[in-house]
Amino acid sequence: MNIGKLYGIGVGPGDPELLTLKAYKTLREVDMIVAPSSREGKRSLALLTVERIIKERENELIVVEPVFPMTKDQAKLDFYWEKAREEVLEKGKGCESVAFITLGDPSLYSTFYKFLDFFKDEVEEVEIIPGVTSLSACSALAKVPIAEGNEIVSIIPDIKGNDNALRVIQNSDSLIFLKPKNIDEIKNMLANKKAILGVKIGFEDQEMVLGKLTELKQPTHYLSTLIVKKEEKEK
Amino acid sequence: MNIGKLYGIGVGPGDPELLTLKAYKTLREVDMIVAPSSREGKRSLALLTVERIIKERENELIVVEPVFPMTKDQAKLDFYWEKAREEVLEKGKGCESVAFITLGDPSLYSTFYKFLDFFKDEVEEVEIIPGVTSLSACSALAKVPIAEGNEIVSIIPDIKGNDNALRVIQNSDSLIFLKPKNIDEIKNMLANKKAILGVKIGFEDQEMVLGKLTELKQPTHYLSTLIVKKEEKEK
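The joint structure predicted for all components is written out below.
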């Protein structure tokens, strides 16, 4: 039993127009799409991004939305991954091509590589199609570059309990905090630096605030990106 | 005299199929395309990426390829930027929309923001369309993620003369070196770590080497990306 060719596809930040031509064409051809959902009953945001393609192929495409909860509880994780395995292998029986879709790009903090590792014995061939990250989309919307010249950029997924984070923050020119859970801690370190906070960038209800870090409020949605720039370029 | 609406478009790493739908549609509609070239007589690589669109619109599209040399010589830079201004404003007379195209994405080390700043008095409206970075493409080709979990990623454009770079290297989990000029210096610091070296990724003559950092040779083309991962994930 296997799932043939597995594509790992970055569908971009949420705007269907930011899909690449390659992702678009591939999603119109695969037999099955696997779209990760973060909790039961919640629609996969990656799936929402490619909704138009799904609708156009309604009767010929298999779509599964396994839940991969954001938790460190190993028993819970094991339960959901096993459930995903059953669902994918059962519904994917006879499929020659399966696409695992991920918001943004597979290279950065995506569930895709865990999926690939988990299913590696069932997969004959793998191809990864990169996508536009939410970082690029956030910068584009703000019309502020993340980095120019020789600036060092660092991406910090979680400052909590990470001693290295502080030293990286001290020595980088541009900082990107993903899903920042405690913006006050970041404010304490970077005070009145120029900052861009993007929430659900790429989606219809996106929000973007550009200002001093001290003025920003804690984002409520987990799909948020905070870009902090240490130095204002002289014009 | 002005150039109407200016688009800053990331055309992705070089593979025409990695253009976004939005970039593709926009490039089929604009009146003029500005494609930066790195030296006189050298074809713009961003332009090569969208060659198909250019050919299809041969008789209706204005294309300019100003030279923006990679130099710190201010007199030389001033000369070429002034030349670019003349060319863009002369050929762009009456154009309602102009697209400045950039390889990868405008947010990271692109000439686009310098261009925007230089032409800001001539521009009525600006829209930026993000693209796929060469980093994402390099990781996709190698089938190795840049970062997972809580890993800190840092992008270092040039280690030379940058004291902060060393401390960032020491405290990050994944490192990305752009256009690495002295790979031996990086080897001295990161020795036998897992590394991916991509040269001209996205182009037909792309090269990708995956192995230990110590085994890699100095890339000869400036369009190269080195990803070094400190820790091998346990499987």
